[in-house]
């Protein structure tokens, strides 16, 4: 069993938990929370560096062997820690209270626990814990809290029941799971990811829930992680068919939510449907089980995380500054007062829908090729969904930033320095990554290889998966 | 410098200018109007010189084709996205036209947009547009052409909504973007299907030999499908056939952008694509007939509507659409060289007309006065030879602009929205009818609360 040079994973998760507890009692919680998130990011980034050197090996945490880092989870862990820091910095003052900061850090710690889980049991613990900040009302009371709790509990319950049916907690057990057990895993994923027709709760969460925690909850992509983990073990033919169905459900979600957006006019709901549609590409790509599809999906995972966090944070920033953004009567014309926020929004949005020159384009290009290879006709749904999503993105942009500025908006500040730098970091990642995607693809190459290799004689596998 | 490095410099320079200036602005660095104007002039002068040097090198060296490979943009397993550029007898004239006309429009815009709040934004978008257009004309594959195509599309839409504090430009920009995206689906699908069926999307994979004598290497029904999808995409970009309604909406943008996009370069990108894939087009009778049919019907409608337009820019838009229809038909009939000459001369003439359109009345009065008030207001029209009832019907149709928007709304937009509403049943929930926003927002009336 290979170990990490230092207990980076325990330290990272510990920093997040310590930050959560101390934020509750701090007079100025934001600096404390940002410090904890920065410490976690540093730990996870160091772990990711070690994993990159180790190649296909799993590196266990020396302090707690129930945590491990490998090619699949190391980069998302570091990336998610960076997103947590971003969200903490971008939170408007009214969202940066002690309870909110503690909630964000707790949510991040739970997600990182699921990422770093060395077995299915720990993954299920992390899966359950993501609902804890909502159960403790750390983000306040809202109408969508009950639905998010119900769905998270149902999804966690499905995963836990599946583990019980497997009679073991090791990841390899998935390969010997019964049809019922594997079906429960897929149900857990479908609920968690909000796949059609179970997507309503996620849209409702965007519409009524606390936006910044929703950004973290949405961008955990734990469902995609579990599917990618399943891909990495030798699945039976029946399990492959179930995964194929999951892929088709993801394609349907991408298309249906993109069409559904045409009937919406509220920015939050539009944004929710847009993010949901684009995030479904990840699952659709992973379910293709071919090199292009999986590599594209793992790349798109990062794109969706960075771009949707940027978009959500900007919408929240605007909501705090201007009344009536939740359900505007007409166009708000805020680009006149906040041109930089408008530009950040547009770049993040265009990267999300795959404008050439951004990282989103490279990711989608690979996913399309992968999807076409597996499902020549169903794969065509993805370009159609992208086209519709781009139209809806421009609708949100127009609604918020173009048109006549309402008379009540006398003056609002453009991006503050505290907002400008994190958003610029997002934009640089999306644009520089788009111009030189090779480097970022390299981060995900090993993970993609693991997901598309069939384990043979050894644990690392020795052959390519036979396409269905 | 070699022809290869000149080609790379030509394409990359406007893109680099866009990225550097854009990032500086986002981080709070402002540029004065004068500096930006000088930068723009210097950039386009450089591009023009590079284009001339490229032409000179090719002419002196007797080269008909320059291929530049900058490696792979990205690659996964067996899939590669090659960054390859091509300069040949088709792309060189269009590169020249792009550089010269964009430069002329840039110089014109320095005065036209003086002290406009969107001055900086306009030039940034123009750099991005130039980069996109040069990428379209020099791409050695459909994949790379798609990249430029999309960049041209998004800059076009952002410039239509340039006057963002007015409702109409915003509404029209949205509508144009919708039409663009639907039309671009043709290109997107063609690229993926070409990869899927033929395992290539590069021009040298599609054709052997050099333009204009290149020979089609694809055959069968699959090739026909790809050709039809490309015709669909080209029609969208050039405002032809089922996509003929967006061009007039695009006139909401500032006049210089109308000139460079809808008079000079952007609308001709569709015709360029058809010229590039001409052998593939002619291998399929469906695609050939479609191009001729689309071209001729759009030209007829355009010339009809053009006669009833009350303002200069709308009239010019329909005139441009008519000429583009004729260019499409010429390509369909196989008159390639004639189509290229028509395309280039139309781009130059239309740019001049668009740039002069704000002072059209003054020009007319000057000419009228110089002629001693002897100019006939109208000439004899061929349509006066038609029966009166036909004239009235055509006049009504022209006034309604072919009833394009009404047809689009009734048969496409409204059913799409109805379907979208129907899909809402999967999201039904009790709080649906109650007002949204659970999180605290700014208190009304909102005046800027710094968060």
Topology:
The complex is a heterodimer of chains A (about 475) and B (about 450).
Chain A: E1 2-3, H1 8-25, H2 29-54, E2 59-60, E3 68-69, H3 74-90, H4 98-115, H5 120-129, H6 132-135, H7 145-166, H8 179-193, H9 200-208, H10 211-218, H11 222-232, H12 237-260, H13 267-288, H14 291-321, H15 339-352, H16 359-374, H17 381-401, H18 417-435, H19 437-452, E4 453-454, E5 463-464
Parallel strand pairs in A: 1-2
Antiparallel strand pairs in A: 2-3, 4-5
Helix pairs in contact in A: 1-2, 1-4, 2-3, 2-4, 3-4, 3-10, 3-14, 4-5, 4-10, 5-7, 7-8, 7-9, 8-11, 8-12, 9-13, 10-14, 11-13, 12-13, 12-17, 13-14, 13-16, 13-17, 14-15, 14-16, 14-18, 14-19, 15-17, 15-18, 16-18, 18-19
Chain B: H1 3-26, H2 33-60, E1 66-76, E2 79-87, H3 91-112, H4 119-138, H5 142-160, H6 167-198, H7 203-206, E3 207-208, E4 215-216, H8 221-237, H9 246-249, H10 255-264, H11 268-276, H12 278-282, H13 285-306, H14 312-333, H15 336-356, H16 360-370, H17 388-399, H18 404-422
Antiparallel strand pairs in B: 1-2, 3-4
Q: In words, what does this structure look like?
A:
The complex is a heterodimer of chains A (468) and B (451). Chain A has two domains: 1-118; 119-464, no CATH class. Chain A contains 19 helices and five strands. With 468 residues, chain A is an all-alpha fold. The longest helix of chain A is centred in the middle third of the chain and has 31 residues, at 291-321. In chain B, α2 (33-60) runs antiparallel to α3, α11 runs parallel beside α14 and α13 runs antiparallel to α14 (312-333). In chain B, a hairpin with a 2-residue loop joins β1 and β2. Chain B has 18 helices and four strands. Chain B is globular and about 65 Å long. Chain B has one domain. By secondary structure, chain B is mainly α. In chain B, strands 1-2 form a two-stranded antiparallel sheet. Chain B has a two-stranded antiparallel sheet with strand order 3-4. The chains are: A mainly alpha (468), B mainly alpha (451). Chains A and B meet through α9, α12, α14, α15 and α16 of A and α1, β1, α5, α6 and α18 of B.
